[in-house]
Amino acid sequence: MKRLTGKVAIVTGASSGIGRATAKLFAAEGAKVVVAARRAAELDRLVTEIEADGGEAAALAGDVRSEPFAQALAALAASRFGRLDIAFNNAGTLGEAGPSAGISEPGWSDALATNLTSAFLGAKHQLPQMLKQGSGSIIFTGTFVGYSFAFPGVAAYAASKAGLVGLTQALAAEYGPQGIRVNTILPGAVDTPMFHRVNDSAESQAFVTSLHALKRVATPQEVARAVLYLASDDSSFVTGTASLVDGGASITRT
Q1: Does residue 175 have an active-site annotation?
Q2: Residue 181: which residues within 8 A CB-CB, separation 6 or more?
Q3: How many domains does the chain have?
Q4: From CA 93, how far away is CA 118, in angstroms rounded?
Q5: Residue 190 per-residue DSSP state
Q6: Would the CA dihedral through 133, 179, 88, 115 be positive or negative?
Q7: Domain range for residue 80?
Q8: 197 is a domain residue
Q9: Has residue 253 been placed in a domain?
């Protein structure tokens, strides 16, 4: 039995990494998927792959920082597939990095807009669709950075991602009585294009790998499995959580 049969899901940041892997897994588990990102060509390839595997998908390219885009994305799910059950608000950015005293105000603001405000705007327009059927699961992508521990030079990233935990708790408390669950995943390092951009040397990759109890980084597919749990009825009594999917980074001191 497929775990998402009859469900409709939105996945943002779906052109690569965790978002792409999750969109494909959702479709394989029976969901109709609306995928979103800035790069239209990558989204079109993803839709083609999902359809080739027997799934159903639609794509909408745009900027998650834009409220009209968030509104259009929720509307597309409803108009194309008739409902909205799951929203994985995954799009994000590392943002401007470096010594905190040197971070520009635009750099700070862009990190918050991309990582935190976009998640709020997504949920704002996803919630009314879910309220129509009295159920739904909203999932955000946070990080262990700024939750378990942090690194120097990533203040904007850490603060914007940490804000998702508060947003998760507030929405879960507000909409739990209407049957809507809200959770955040907190991945450790994941083998994605962003990971390789930040860690562009063998030494850097080895250091980050060593921070995890499992002494390796995750694959996007492993994180997607954790998202699937929160999206499915397997987690029907789970809401308001910040769920570590970090390979033991939070408990490792060796």
Answers
A1: no
A2: 136, 137, 138, 172, 230, 235, 236, 238, 239
A3: 1
A4: 11
A5: B
A6: positive
A7: 8-192+221-243
A8: no
A9: no
Confidence (pTM) = 0.96
CATH (domain of 143) = 3.40.50.720
3-state helix, strand, coil in the chain (%, to 5): 50, 15, 35
Q: What is the pLDDT of residues 138-189, one digit of tens each?
A: 999 999 999 998 889 999 999 999 999 999 999 999 999 999 999 999 999 9
Q: Which residues contact 158 (CB under 8 A, 6 or more apart)?
A: 143, 145, 146, 150
CA distance 176 to 162: 21
Residues 6+ apart with CB under 8 A from 125: 67, 70, 71, 73, 74, 75
Which of the following is catalytic: 147, 157, 175, 229?
A: 157
The distance from CA 136 to its chain's CA centroid, rounded to whole angstroms, is 16
Structural domain includes residue 200 = no
Beta bridge partners of 243: 185
Domain assignment of residue 215, yes or no: no
- Indicate the SS3 state at residue 126: helix
